[in-house]
Automatic annotation (TrEMBL):
GO terms for biological process: adenylate cyclase-activating G protein-coupled receptor signaling pathway; cell surface receptor signaling pathway. The chain crosses the membrane at residues 6-29, 41-59, 71-90, 110-127, 147-166, 204-227, 233-257. It is a multi-pass membrane protein. This is G-protein coupled receptor 1. Residues 6-259 form the G-protein coupled receptors family 2 profile domain. Gene3D superfamilies: Rhodopsin 7-helix transmembrane proteins. InterPro entries: GCR1-cAMP_receptor, GPCR_2-like_7TM, GPCR_GCR1_put. It is found in: Membrane. It holds the Pfam family Dicty_CAR. One of its GO terms (molecular function) is G protein-coupled receptor activity. Its main location: membrane. GO terms for cellular component: plasma membrane.
Length: 296
């Protein structure tokens, strides 16, 4: 019964993530004005989340082949997802703090880093022993399996969280210093631009919390299973599966649904006949300044 509940929860949460990620992918494909390098990284992030959610939905714990297929696929694309967040953080840091303009030339290196690392981590994970089927497919039992899972997933995950947090801290501190200098120089026009930048980037400073919120319970659950193997706590597994499966939805809202996307959507809504516009969301924000990733 518990496994059926977890399977249903995983499918429902993964479906929400799939819809949110697919929306960002669709926006990138439909709206040419979004096809800038900054949003291209968000597109790759959303694509990874979408595929991770898709394979989470189609996996069937009752069938060995589909379960293992789900396990390899979700592990690969989930690792790719949080690695893409590090490329976004790196791009912001390189542009804002180091004042480099060569980030677009690094796209090939980003792909090699993300997909290559994801593949290596997925292959290494297959070395874990004593696999068994469960609600979250391909559960590795025994301390050896748990240790392999930690090394191939949670270690790089928390490394990405620490890197993103440190990077955003440096970016925000840099813009804070620039704002204070502008105040001292009484440069009102620059103060206005800096405030807009700070409002956006201060919000970006919370983005590492998405990964923490998505995987904190999973980390606790893994540590508990390592200490007391075979003694599962249902409510902890429930939170583990639910929050992890929602990562794609959280990323699509935080990274993808920015002012550029909203503006592109509102411009299309303006093409609707007047009699339909009163049923549509207000387009008041379509003329707001483009603050997200403005430095890029």
């Amino acid at each position: 019964v518990d496994d059926r509940i977890l399977v249903a929860l995983n499918s429902a949460a993964s479906s929400l993530s799939f819809v949110g990620s697919a929306f960002i992918v669709l926006c990138y494909c439909l709206f040419k004005e979004l096809r800038k390098f900054s949003f291209k990284l968000v597109f790759y992030l959303a694509l990874s989340d979408m595929l991770c959610s898709f394979f989470s939905i189609v996996g069937d714990p009752s069938k060995g082949f589909f379960c293992y297929a789900q396990a390899y696929s979700t592990h690969f694309f989930c690792v790719a997802s949080f690695l893409w967040t590090t490329t976004i953080a790196f791009t912001l840091h390189r542009t804002v703090v180091r004042h480099k303009t060569d980030v677009e030339d690094l796209e090939a290196m980003f792909h090699l880093y993300v997909w290559g690392t994801s593949l290596v981590m997925t292959v290494i994970r297959s070395f874990g022993h004593n696999h068994s089927l469960g609600a979250w497919c391909w559960i590795q039992t025994g301390r050896t399996g748990k240790a392999v899972h930690f090394i191939t997933f949670y270690a790089p995950l928390w490394g990405a969280i620490l890197y993103n947090g440190y990077t955003y801290f440096q970016v925000i501190r840099m813009l804070n210093n620039v704002t204070r200098m502008a105040v001292g120089m009484s440069d009102r026009s620059y103060q206005f631009d800096s405030r807009a930048d700070m409002k956006a980037l201060n919000r970006w400073g919370y983005y590492p919390l998405i990964l923490i919120g998505s995987w904190a319970f999973g980390t606790i659950n893994l540590i508990h299973d390592f200490i007391e193997p075979g003694h599962r706590i249902f409510w902890l597994s429930f939170l583990d599966v639910g929050t992890a499966a929602l990562m794609g939805l959280f990323n699509s809202i935080a990274y993808g649904l920015n002012s550029s996307v909203r503006r592109a959507i509102y411009e299309r809504l303006e093409l609707f006949p007047d009699r339909f516009k009163r049923w549509l969301p207000s387009a008041r924000s379509r003329n707001q300044p483009q603050s997200e990733m403005v430095s890029l």
